[in-house]
Design a protein that fits this description.
The protein is mainly alpha-helical. It contains 31 helices and no strands. The protein is elongated. It is found in: Nucleus.
Length: 566
């Protein structure tokens, strides 16, 4: 049967022939002398190690027993050393050269270069044993093997590139890297120098996920990138710039059934956005805000179908929160009608409601949230947020969110609105506190005393710890004080500060009937005006944007002026 040139060049060996290839013809291999003596053992042992328990059930009991016996005898057999590593790399280089030579020599005769391809694939499988000796990784670098390995990601046969991805995933496993810091640093730097992110993404673009092996290859590729970023978190922007960001956005919005790869892509997007302003900017430039909003719109009226889809939804919300830390993305969120979507989610009472509340908090906070705050009131957002303020919903068991987290976000949103809106919108906001015989003021004071008690309890605990430290002759230094302050914030101090800020703001600028109601409740509950003033003074001392001294000073002055008027 005649084949055209395109079909011949695109030819890939049958996967089963690769998987079933044995050792029967090894005796006739001209390069056998270069192979490590442990080849047969390594293949069997690595096969056992890499198989999941479900896959192991496909092995006979005899096979399991033999492999387990080999594992037990491992210490008595030849260990991987520098000399064995060099032999393995030399064999790999020979297989690569041989395969390239045969492909060039017989470009129109796949059957003539297939044998060399199978040998190359087998050799790559044998290299997995290197992951058991991370202390030898620096020898890989010295032998220039990392560059050679990365080049195989561009191999015409995706079976070879997928095998290489599997190898890289095992070599970069975080637990393995942690065994040898020197070896890990050498390997990761060499991979980064070889532009591994770009090469991995290029390979991703040609994988067909309708084929199981290639879908697994996509998942494992993302695993390699995650391993590298876990070890070198500051290189997230490199990954994004080398094509990862466009790929993730394209894959997330692809019209394909939900699967593990879409979940993994959402997780990777959240990782690269977490601590990098550059990646947030790139996301905005690639219309990523619209992509995230379109994907989340699915959960406006429908709950996720299962726990994996729920996890993906949470990842996408986390991506949105990270992206909104960049001021330019606040404008994109506003223009993309993100506020309207979050407001609808709050009203629908689905599983997306808690995360929508968190996104809304990020969108409205700070001076950059002025336009969003104004728009939120224009779309009747006060009708949505105040019922949530008046009554905290029961925690969702599947999501596991606490009441305190919900209350913090709601209180933070109201505080942001008070800071950012002007004229008519501000008056509408202040008038809310007089409705239903000042019911919202009563709720505000109820929350004030709740969080005052929580902070009082942690303050007492911290004081006992300080006394114990002094008895042991230790000084409470500045880093320890900062740690104690963060502990107080996490236990409820931040929410208490916002509650007391709202109290002072509405007493000073709201309708005249509000302050008497606040003072009445304080007297009935034995509250202290001095304690409230101290809380706001402490808030003022720590508030503000660290990037802008002017903004920080202005906010401090505004808070202290409220204290003086209270």
């Amino acid at each position: 049967m005649a084949l055209n040139v395109g079909e011949l060049l695109a030819y890939q060996p049958d996967r089963e022939s690769i998987a079933k290839r044995g050792h029967d013809d090894d005796d006739n291999d001209e390069d056998d002398l270069d192979r490590p003596v442990r080849k047969a053992r390594v293949r069997d042992v690595e096969r056992y190690r890499r198989h999941s328990p479900a896959q192991q059930t496909g092995m006979s009991e005899e096979e399991k027993a033999v492999i387990l016996e080999k594992l037990e005898q491992e210490d008595d057999m030849e260990t991987l050393d520098e000399a064995a590593l060099k032999r393995m790399i030399l064999t790999f280089e020979k297989r690569v050269y041989r395969n390239q030579e045969m492909r060039i020599k017989y470009p129109d005769s796949p059957e003539k270069f297939m044998e060399s391809e199978l040998e190359l694939h087998d050799t790559i499988q044998e290299l997995h044993v290197i992951a058991t000796a991370p202390e030898l990784y620096h020898h890989l670098v010295e032998l220039n093997a990392v560059q050679s390995l990365c080049q195989m990601l561009n191999h015409e046969n995706t079976d070879i590139s997928i095998a290489l991805v599997d190898l890289l995933q095992e070599l970069t496993d975080v637990d393995t890297l942690n065994e040898s810091e020197e070896g890990a640093d050498a390997l990761i730097e060499a991979l980064l120098d070889a532009q591994v992110f770009g090469m991995l993404v290029t390979n991703l673009d040609r994988l067909d996920e309708s084929v199981k092996e290639e879908a697994d290859g996509v998942h494992n590729t993302l695993g390699v990138i995650e391993n590298i970023l876990e070890f070198k978190a500051d290189r997230a922007n490199d990954a994004a710039q080398q094509g990862l960001m466009p790929y993730l956005l394209k894959r997330i919005k692809a019209k394909m059934p939900f699967d593990a790869n879409k979940l993994y892509c959402s997780e990777m997007l959240a990782i690269i956005l977490q601590n990098s302003e550059e990646t947030r900017e790139q996301l905005g430039e690639l219309d990523g805000i619209d992509t995230l909003l379109q994907q989340l719109a699915t959960f406006k009226r429908h709950n996720p179908a299962n726990s994996e889809e729920l996890e993906m939804m949470e990842n996408l919300f986390d991506c949105l929160c990270s992206a909104l830390m960049l001021p330019a993305n606040r404008d994109r969120f506003l223009k993309g009608e993100g506020l309207q979507l979050m407001n609808l989610m709050l009203r629908e009472k689905k599983m997306s409601r808690n995360s929508a509340l968190k996104v809304l908090d990020h969108a409205l906070t700070g001076p950059e949230g002025v336009d969003n705050c104004t728009k939120f009131i224009d779309i009747l957002g006060l009708r949505t947020i105040f019922p949530l303020f008046m009554k905290t919903p029961k925690p969702n068991k599947k999501i596991g969110r606490m009441k305190e987290e919900h209350e913090e976000h709601v209180v933070s949103i109201i505080a942001s609105l008070l800071k950012n809106v002007k004229s008519n919108q501000r008056q509408r906001l202040l008038n809310k506190f007089t409705e239903a015989d000042h019911a919202k003021v009563d709720r505000l004071m109820e929350l004030h005393f709740k969080y005052l008690d929580k902070v009082g309890a942690v303050d007492a605990q911290i004081e006992r710890e300080k006394v114990a430290l002094r008895r042991q002759g230790e000084e409470v230094d500045e880093p320890m004080e900062e740690e104690f302050y963060l502990r107080r914030l996490n236990t409820g101090l931040f929410t208490l500060q916002l509650l007391d800020y709202i109290m002072l703001e509405i007493c000073s600028t709201g309708p005249a009937s509000i302050k008497p109601r606040v003072m009445q409740i304080l007297n009935l509950r034995g509250g202290s005006i001095k304690a409230i003033r101290n809380i706001i003074r402490e808030y003022a001392a720590n508030v503000g944007d660290a990037k802008s001294t002017e903004t920080k000073e202005a906010e401090q002055q505004r808070l202290l002026s409220l204290v003086d008027r209270f």
